[in-house]
Amino acid sequence: MAHYYITTPIYYVNDAPHVGHAYCTVNADALARWHRLVGDETKFLTGTDEHGQKVADAAALNGVSPQEWTDRTSARFREAWDALDISYDDFIRTTEPRHYETVQRFLTAVYENGHIYKDVYHGLYCVSCEDYYTLESSDEGRCPIHGRALTEMQEENWFFRLSAFAEPLLRYYEEHPDFVTPETKRNEALAFIRGGLRDISITRTSIAWGIPVPWDDRHVFYVWYDALINYLTAIGYGREDDQTSTWWPVSHHLVGKEILRFHCVWWPAMCMAAGLDPVHHVQVHGWLLVGGQKLSKTMAAEGGVKLSDISPVVLTDEFGVDPIRYYLLRETSLGNDGDFSHEGITARYNTDLANNLGNLVARVTTIVATKCAGVGPAPQPGSELASAARQAVGAAAAAWDRFAPHAALEATWGLITATNAYLEQRAPWKMSPGDELDAVMGDALEAIRLVSVLATPAIPHVCATIWSRIGLEGAPGDETFADSAQWGRYRGVHPIVKGEPLFPRITVSDD
Ligand code: ME8
Q1: Which of the two ends of the chain, N or C, has the fewest CB atoms closer than 10 A to its terminal CB?
Q2: pLDDT (tens digit, 9 = 90+) per residue, 75-121?
């Protein structure tokens, strides 16, 4: 059985989760659900990144200890993921003992392998990024991402000999052409490596909120250096419950484009330095933008949207879980930036969910209820819809496999459109009860069943509801995909439930 390990970044707990975090987490969730559906042994990891200056500052600002602050904020992430029906298998917090243990083991291995040394660091630091810049890489002394003035820092630090890994990294990229996708991001990482790698400072004495360096307890590890190792903590690296050989290195990290350098340069080099194979795949995604801007706390101050108004919990309350999940998955392809807006959600809701999917299910269940005595007939083996279905199944499966949920859903909605067109053409509402009507309705029910299977990683609640409305037991993911994706599994003689509209239309006012 294939193993599939997928991770999101672990999110900083300096503030509450917003829809940008949800974007990444929902995509990872749908991919994990897809792999469970096809029968892979799946592990889906998310969590919170709780050390570092930024988090310590947020705690101080709120007058509580860092531990109290991280407990409180980490819980808000869990709450958001519950609201979005996120099926993580593990939620890691970097303040947990298991993480301390793995980090210390991993970094001791790097140290003992001779890749860590002591020196004095001078640099320009951005607390929001928790990262150093050089004058050249800064925006005239300001952070190129956050726009804030950079702070001059000088401290005695332990350094990681990143510069020694340029050649091994380039070789790794050459031997693993799919290491970083999409290709534009792979090229970006390669350009960075070819531009020359400098050693990086990996410890701090200026703050105490971090994991102690095992061989020098005046220092704590720099937050990024501990954070990346979370992916190994969750699979027990260096501990008694070590499952590294099961889940590593054939794993997938889904990360936003601003943390490409950490995941595509530092992290593989760190793994090599510890004597471990780097992860096999990093999928980089773009940003959700509001009015052309990355979501940030300053947006509201500049007259834009307030982040708290578009928190995952507020959005799911307003539109429902599945519509938000659908929007986040369907609107933007992983890799590109996309615009987030209420108008965008409403448009997708009314068009794809209410008009296409909702109407199809309503239409079919109504006709079967009134003209087929409420019992769903069986489909025809050679139906013209069967070829549309086969095409949709193939295209959707291929898209899920290549990290393209938007394309998987596009293919799935292609089958909905084909089914609606088939009904328009055959006009079963004009037919009298009998074999011809049964054949058409059986085909439509079978197409709906297949749509529920294909869409279940994205909108699991609605798919389970549709499943029971067409008289099936359990849920669309209960059978393995190889079986359930075959045309003709809907055997007929299933009791149909008409039910309330799945997606009542949202009225859009003109003002
Ligand atoms: O960087 N659009 O944490 P973070 C899309 N702790 N995705 C967005 C987004 C937006 N507007 N804003 C945030 C960190 N994200 C580190 C990671 S991993 C070892 C350590 C998502 O809280 C996106 O996935 O700043 C991005 O990479 C992640 O949140 C960064 O979250």
Answers
A1: C
A2: 999 999 999 999 999 999 999 999 999 999 999 999 999 999 999 88
Residues 159 and 240 in one domain: yes
Residue bearing the CA closest to ligand 1, atom 21 = 21
- What value does the mean pLDDT of the chain take? 94
**Residue 322 falls within a domain, yes or no?**
no
Q: Residue 291: how many CB atoms within 10 A of its CB?
A: 12
Query: Of 1-5, 26-30, 476-480, which one has max mean pLDDT?
Result: 26-30
Q: Are the C-beta atoms of residues 456 and 29 closer than 8 Å to each other?
A: no
* Per-residue pLDDT at 279: 98
The predicted model gives 430-439 an average pLDDT of 96
Q: Which of 294, 342, 371, 461 is catalytic?
A: 294
Contact 373, 494 (CB under 8 A): no
CB of residue 294 inside a 6 A radius of ligand 1: yes
**Ligand 1 within 6 A of 12 CB?**
yes
- Record the tokens describing residue 471, joined without a space: 């008289």
CA gap 316, 354 in Å, rounded: 17
Average pLDDT over residues 380-399: 96
Question: Domain for residue 333, yes or no?
Answer: no
What is the reported pLDDT for 205?
86
Is any atom of ligand 1 closer than 6 Å to the C-beta of 20?
yes
Nearest atom (ligand 1) to Cα of 228: 19
CATH code of the domain covering residue 310: 3.40.50.620
CA of 183 to the centre of ligand 1 (A): 20
Structural domain for 483, as ranges: 349-495
Which residue among 291, 315, 339 closes a domain?
Answer: 315
H helical segments located in 157-297: 166-175, 183-194, 223-227, 230-233, 244-247, 260-261, 267-274
Mean pLDDT (whole number) for 22-44:
98
Confidence (pLDDT) at 19 = 94
What is the β-pairing status of strands 200-201 and 494-495? unpaired
Assess if residue 221 is contained within a domain: yes
CB-side neighbour CA atoms (13 Å) of 335: 17
Amino acid identity of residue 176, one-letter, is: H
pTM of the entire structure?
Answer: 0.94
Please check whether residues 67 and 117 belong to one and the same domain: yes
Token representation of residue 424: 């328009």
Q: Which two tokens stand for residue 48?
A: 């919170």
CA distance linking residue 120 with residue 301, whole number of Å: 39
